[in-house]
Batch of 2 targets.
Target 1
Amino acid sequence: MSAPAGSPHPAASARIPPKLGGAAAPGAAAPAVPGLGPHQQNGPAQNQMQVPSGYGLHPQNYIAPSGHYSQGPGKMTSLPLESQCADYYCGLYTIPTQNVVTPSTASQQPGAQQMYGRVPPAPHIVGSTPGSFQGAAASASHLHTSASQPYSSFVNHYSSPAVYSANSSVASQGFPSTCGHYALSTLSNAAYPSVSYPSLPAGDPYGQQIFTSQSAPTVRPTGDHSFSGQNTAISHPSPLPPPPSQPYHQQQSLSGYNTFSWSASGLPSTQDNPIRNHTSLAAANNNLTNTVADSLSCSVMQNVQPPKSSPVVSTVLSGASSARTPPAANRPVEPVASVTQPSELLQQKGMQYGEYVNNQASSAPTPLSSTSDDEEEEEEDEEAGVDSSSTTSSASPMPNSYDALEGGSYPDMLSSSASSPAPDPAPDVDSAPAPAPAAPQPSKMAKPFGYGYPTLQPGYQNATAPLNPGVPPSSPYSGLQQYAQQYPGMNQLSSSLGGLSLQSSTQPESLRPVNLTQERNILPMTPVWAPVPNLNLDLKKLNCSPDSFRCTLTNIPQTQALLNKAKLPLGLLLHPFRDLTQLPVITSNTIVRCRSCRTYINPFVSFIDQRRWKCNLCYRVNDVPEEFMYNPLTRSYGEPHKRPEVQNSTVEFIASSDYMLRPPQPAVYLFVLDVSHNAVEAGYLTILCQSLLENLDKLPGDSRTRIGFMTFDSTVHFYNLQEGLSQPQMLIVSDIDDVFLPTPDSLLVNLYESKELIKDLLNALPNMFINTRETHSALGPALQAAFKLMSPTGGRVSVFQTQLPSLGAGLLQSREDPNQRSSTKVVQHLGPATDFYKKLALDCSGQQTAVDLFLLSSQYSDLASLACMSKYSAGCIYYYPSFHCTHNPSQAEKLQKDLKRYLTRKIGFEAVMRIRCTKGLSMHTFHGNFFVRSTDLLSLANINPDAGFAVQLSIEESLADTALVCFQTALLYTSSKGERRIRVHTLCLPVVSSLADVYAGVDVQAAICLLANMAVDRSISSSLSDARDALVNAVVDSLSAYGSTVSNLQHSGLIAPSSLKLFPLYVLALLKQKAFRTGTSTRLDDRVYAMCQIKCQPLVHLMKMIHPNLYRIDRLTDEGAIHVNDRVVPQPSLQKLSAEKLTREGAFLMDCGSVFYIWIGKGCDNNFIEDVLGYPNFASIPQKMTHLPELDTLSSERARSFITWLRDSRPLSPILHVVKDESPAKTEFFQHLIEDRTEAAFSYYEFLLHVQQQICK
Amino acid sequence: MEAVVFVFSLLDCCALIFLAVYFIITLSDLECDYINARSCCSKLNKWVLPELVGHTIVTVLMLISLHWFIFLLNLPVATWNIYRFIMVPSGNMGVFDPTEIHNRGQLKSHMKEAMIKLGFHLLCFFMYLYSMILALIND
């Protein structure tokens, strides 16, 4: 795939043989072209490219990595292509290249994975190939060419929730990030400029358009180039041929930026990129915003917003991180396209990657085995390999030393990592300097550029390290860094334009003081992205996706005292097992880990020399094992820094038998069903059995998969499904005080051997208990029996319960006083009434069994107690209040869809997760569903892709002697196929010493989610009112601390840094959330369920729950729409959650995560009602409407595609309610308008005044 | 008679000292990851009640034997023990709950508490020893 695409741009000649870019090509190229350095193959091709030389250097660095990737990710076939791409980009676009690579494989899956995105860098490696310039461009071009596939893939990405994650992570990273952004954007609603994808084929046109019309990011481009390479590449399909480039050149020249861009452009493709940037710059004049976006890889972001928001919007985005933001209105199309494609490519690569690795490595994971650690990580596999000092020539001399990195020695890093696959890194480096003379110059040129922009704060500047004298390339980098910094400046400019500013922006923009009481439209019109840590580009590209791993402070304070001064929570939010479309899977005999702290080798370690690496968490120096010296991707020896483990911050290892205490367990599923009168009346059995029948073949597992069923009312019933029986046998145990298993061997049966019996049972079950009069529920004994049944193997128990357990162990009393539901005083009974369920859960957890609870009740069922069975066994909780299969069809439909997801999603068994962090930091509290077995080890009997976790951190020792801190999450699990795997995520963040920097790096969404988790704990351990006070105090303290220390402005208003401007709004939203609200009638179970969700939802879903998104949908247009698959998805802007935004003439959609409301105003246009709802006028709309009819009108199509798109972005299907302005159901809708006053709570403005008052006290 | 009271107190105090040491050892095992939270908590919870009873007996004994100073010295600790025991939430598995011991620095506070108690019991031990000797001499 990639090949074709690639070819277009660069001129065929450019490409080199590419095969894998790897290795060979790069190698050759590098040495061959002394000046440019291997990566730069481009360079050779074009002098102009050289400008980028600075970049070129970078590229080299990148290249190396890319090489790895390329090989890894790309399949054999694809590899070549990729490699080419890599070459192209190599210098400039390393990132893009990555994308390119990925493109080759067009994976269908939605989630774009960041990792892969990184992988894409690999392409850079190729660098050597001249043709490669496509790199960025190529990637884009590829995309274009392959457009149709890619698109589809894109679509997928969007559709799937997983995608999001990918996106988020990316931002920081070059292309990948962009992709990610896109994905995110799409998810978030961002206008996916990507729509333009289709145009991809026309890539060139785009490019042109860009030039001509787009205003694009002017200046920053240069800076970007290096980085932006990615962006540009993405956005503009490099394909644009030379012609465009020329124009660009001109533009560039004008701006003075030229040099930069050109250098980058080395290759034609590169040219395109630069050009774009330049052009964009030129255009930039028009739109500051655009420029901003461009500056960073942000471009992607830009896409997002695009259409609607005009330039202004884009400005906002500028956030330092850039990654997220920037949706330049103008460009939407281009960027998107590029992004998407990459993602696809990436995905595939990821897969391929794995394969390759395996092949080479040869080692296979053997299931058997034994022993050793209980905990995954404990084991030591590592071994050092042989060490020796051999130094091969050079491989990258100091590949990844932190210091170097920080110092700005990036080049080194890059080079090391980048070293193209084929050639040895060392040579590259060496050669690069010499050859690359041109490059350096460019870099210099670039610098001026960067300087032109406003300087960043000192703290940030640090990041840009000085150039390394030794390494010419370094200078370029520095230039780049500067650029990056510059960006912020741009942002600032842009910020003035629009209110869209994203929080993410770091630095200036994020510190811009905002007077909250005077800023009327505080909510951006586009979704808020995660801020990108202020790291140098290399690290940014390597860093973990924010979808998987986020920290509340992207700038870590140096000391606990500083943290205390900032009054902000410090913690991590994790989504470790989310669906990834691309993921490098590594099979290797030795998994390289630090000998003392057992950290897995990761992109942020430093290689002291060829044979030794320094752990980035404990700073111990370890040997590099012999096996690690060989890079399976490039098939080269002596480049440990180019191994996929060191090129990706999210990787998955196939674990050896050292990581097993017992042979990997098979997938075992047990269903425990309530069949009392109440349950039969509710009718869930029909839905469950139907779903199971439909999904029986899709249950994750291998040939060993086992399944079993139990039912219970006042007795416990077992079903003998042993193969050979003519029909299922029901065995009843009525001794519930001492439950035993009647026939232990035949209750859990092999799914495939007994499939017919299972189907018979499922068909019969719904009718078996139809005449039951048994109203009691012996849940406790049934669970005990389930535990006995599961304990030999472990697995998953799914419990369906419809009422309060009333018999046997674990029986519960009703504790809710309905009269207290709206009490403003004390809310009691938030904690469990008995420790029975907790003990049971711990027993289950010890036997690797997770209990998932489906509570379908119409009355109080004491979820607070029942939830314990899932909370501590790492299960999940689903709650369907007022469930009835006929009276409440929307709940029934939701159950059906949730079950489909539940039954078919990925699952990991007998898992443990360990979180490690740099010495000096310590974790003290964990949130989520699991059992903390020892200080940093979470025991997860099951892990599912929808589970999120949070960790609170404290700073125990001063971090003054380190500039970066890292966090590593290692999740060891048994896949449903019986493979033992370890998924490792590594996040790297800078350390800052000033309070202003701490505020500049706040990730408001992460902070809110962490606060919500802490508030849940507080409500249970203390009281709800304490928790509410604590939430308000969090706002008061942080804003007053900011006001008294950082802000010099003496305003009468309430001043917050831009990064925190949404903080009060979100806290108010939390106070009005079901979990914490008072004064509004809230059923205890609803409240407890909301708390459970806060604890175990990943951030993206939790944010929607806390602060819903409101869109106006009666005037959807295609402006700014994105294309997902074959559909056009309109991207309406976000409205603030206030009734003032609701006009009687409009129709609004509110996305609350698990529920959608469509509110129809009284005066709503009859055309809309007729076209979309299928009724002639407002009066004829029924009170209960949960579906939009499929009408063949344009507005109906738009509305449905928008809703479908939103739905596809989350794992569990939300219910849709159409709410008429007059209907009683509207109170539900209005509850979510959190900026308005309710009888029991402040309006947003009142809340601000309240906070201000508290501050003044 | 007085001597008997103090001999008993001394023995009781010895037991409490051993218990405090046991708590400290077990908690530090947990801290070092030698045992898991589940087994640590079940071990410790077993001894919470004996500790409470043992200490309450001494306190009451001092009250009965009209040793006001020693009684007042013991009172806060005894009160704390009882308070802690009573205030365990219904859903928890005891004073030491394996699901929460790693949260919010609980492990550290338990450790600190065990240390303080050890110091307190040592102090009491010498006081009882002194009082016992004094009582024996007086006899």
Note: The helical segments of chain B are 2-31, 37-64, 68-86, 106-138.
Target 2
Amino acid sequence: MSDFILEATNISKRFGGLVAVKEASISVKRGDIVGLIGPNGAGKTTFFNMLSGFMPADTGEIFFKGKKINGMRPSNICKLGMTRTFQIVKPFPELTVLENVMIGAFNTTSSTTDAKKIAMEVLNLVGYASYADMSAGSLTVAGRKRVEVAKALATKPELMLLDEVLAGLTPTEMWSMIDVLGKVRDQGVTVLIVEHVMAVIMNLCDQVFVLNYGEKIAEGTPAEVSENPKVLEAYLGDDYGKPASGAN
Amino acid sequence: MLTVYLQALISGLLIGGVFSLIAVGLTLTFGVMKIKNFAHGDFLIVGMYFAFFCHLLLGIDPYLSALLGIPLFFGLGWIIQNYLINPVLSAPETIKILITVGISLCLQNIAVFLFSPDFQRVQVEYGTATFDLFGASVSITRLIATSIAVFIVVALYIFLMKTSIGRAIRACAEERDGALAVGVNVDRIYLIALGIATSCVCIAGALMTPFYTISPTVGVSFTLTAFVVVVLGGLGNLKGALVGGFIIGVVESFGEILMPEAALKQVATFAIFILILLFRPNGLFGTKLA
Amino acid sequence: MGRSVGFAIYGVIGLICIGLPFFAESDVVVAVMPPGLSGSTLLHIGILIFLFGYLATSWNVLGGFCGQLSLGHAAFFAIGAYTSSLLYIHFGLTPWVGMLAGAAVAAVVGYGLGYVSFKYGLKGPFFALVTIAFAEILRLLMLYWDFTGGPLGLLIPLTEDSWSDMQFMAKEPYYYMAFGLMIFGILATAKIGSSRFGYYLRAIRESEEAAEALGIHSMRNKMHAAAISAAMTALGGTFYAQYTQYIVPDDVVKIALSIEIILFAVIGGSGLVMGPVVGAFILVPIGEMTRVIFSTAATGVSFVALVNSDIPAVEKFAKYLDYLASGGGGGLALLLYGAILIFVCLVMPRGVLPALKSLQSWGKKS
Ligand SMILES: Nc1ncnc2c1ncn2[C@@H]1O[C@H](COP(=O)(O)OP(=O)(O)OP(=O)(O)O)[C@@H](O)[C@H]1O
Ligand SMILES: [Mg+2]
């Protein structure tokens, strides 16, 4: 078995006349935190949608843990060990925070008691246990993002796809979320993260892929990528260099 | 044999316009307020009983009642939108549906209470008049109903395209927040929209009275028909509703002659409905209003 | 604290229900209740409350927990009623077994209906429309088919009191059976609600995509919910057939029945275990009371006859007022239900039960 937990080769997605992702490839090493960056509309979320089974890829192949997952439904991909969060968070609003996380926990147990236990552990990990009985619909943005991560984490994934979990947070909230991500990595979970906040990518990621207009234009360590002229060009006139697009 | 098919085609076209008029009201509600009105068909009986009593008590011809009733029909829609629908616009989808189910129950049972569940007819001399067309018979009352219906749909279309209120209605359908931002009084537009929608159904009801029996529950199956027409024509699409009405009218009457058993006619209709709902969720003509 | 108060209230009401047959005809009840509402009428109302409470509870699995708005549950009710009755009439099979057969048929049909609808991505109003159309097709077929007795329906051959034939002269056995059915429904949905399956259904209701992302096969779970809900509803159908001993399509598959079922659930509080039962306990007595009151006052004036009569207008109008005062052409119970549904949608969209609960906790706080 290769040491890549996820390999996608030449995957594309077209919406009518618009090619949102064009023959992009990516490989993610087990245990890494890998960044996926690119300007707004570059196709990052679409890329995630294909990896996680929410949209079929028009071309290319996706392998997770050596198994081809093209055409599998999201729930089965999750069962295999890959979970995602949504950029536009999708809490279960009528349920409590604890119940939200329990839904994720049921991925590995059928007992309600166990699910509750797992969910509490995860909530402790993300530092949100005190909100367990709040209804998820009544949370702030930061709270919802945290619950989004907690739900995904509770499925006990081997690979997590995180779509802009830091956008819209205040700096304090952001740093505590970054802290959470570190803990997630320490648990041995591989992370593929879409983020606009460059500081995070620089500090946290082992490897970075850059998309622009649906095409992969660079990959490498954060240092390499940040010096890549193509990347600089893609971001010129955009918000490159500012700390965060959504955080200020 | 050929005349049988011709007859089916003609019968389908003759009811098709009425379907269109009913469906146009529903598609407007759908497109503008995003409300799925399960009481839509039940407004039919408002028009029907109105025409019935105008004829019975005052001797007014049903076609005239269809015209005279418009303020009443429009006002009814206005009031219902104002007091019942507008308050739940931001409620969950299920509540929005259920409140219309409640309205449907009320309309039907007010009619049962006031006018009893028995069938009624409006007896006009020309009620059964027909003429011959290539061996198929054409009912004059149905022809009139369908013609007037098409006329109203076209007039409504022009109204939506050319007048300022029409443009405001379309703006609300496309982009509610945008319309709000440029100063459109969205709540008021909604009142007008449901007023128009109910007027369409009620007028259809009045137009049908010369050839259709009246009872408190006749609306139910028209709700279903209207939904199918709207789904077929594209949610919120006016032209789609116009064309869809005729398609459904014809498909239904062909389904009926192809069904070996007369008793199973309606089964064919419902089966077609289910198939359309399953296979045509995006409609034939797209989902833009007008 | 709040919980135990709730349990206590349910317990007391449960005990009253169990005891009712023993004092339904006592002088106290006769004196307290409106005229005509004692003895077997009271038991009949009790039976309707339990049956509708149970049916609404069954609907709740699909419509409440899972959020898939079925407006055609009468179809499953009819499948239960017809399956067991046909098996009994033709093969002498005891309704106790026929009941299970009916449930099995309904489960298969519910599963199939779910499969077709959910496969094509039908949601909300469109799923509701398909269920209505399906129920209407079933009604038309039952009117047409010979083996279902067509419009005349099925008459269950009378025997003497017999547990094995599920037939009784008196109301009491039916009363307790209906009560048992309702308790079964409550326990079953409570069990489902606290299980993984129940959590899955609620997750699907709130966001199907989020549920899928967390490993929930939304399609399969929705189909299971449809099958279970259909099977439970069918059990109620068999009970109804045995209770009335006569079933016709226009009674058991009518749209009004489907709507009544969801009314009780939604008004009580859909998605909650006790919501549908609370709804039935509130609404059925209101509806039956209306029927009883107006049926005793009925003057027998026919609207059509009145309209066509040749008496002077003033007299006609006076007679018409009499006609209305005596309940008109009927429909008042359903009219009330409709008005209450609208009221609930506007004022307490989660239903009466949650409203009562928040009232209680609010009372405690202040
Ligand atoms: N379902 C869809 N139908 C049509 N076009 C879509 C759809 N989803 C995305 N797009 C288009 O595809 C392009 C890529 O969108 P995507 O959401 O993947 O970008 P992104 O990199 O995630 O951007 P952002 O940083 O803003 O989240 C955009 O132009 C978007 O408008
Ligand atoms: Mg994105």
Note: Chains B and A do not touch (no CB pair under 8 Å).
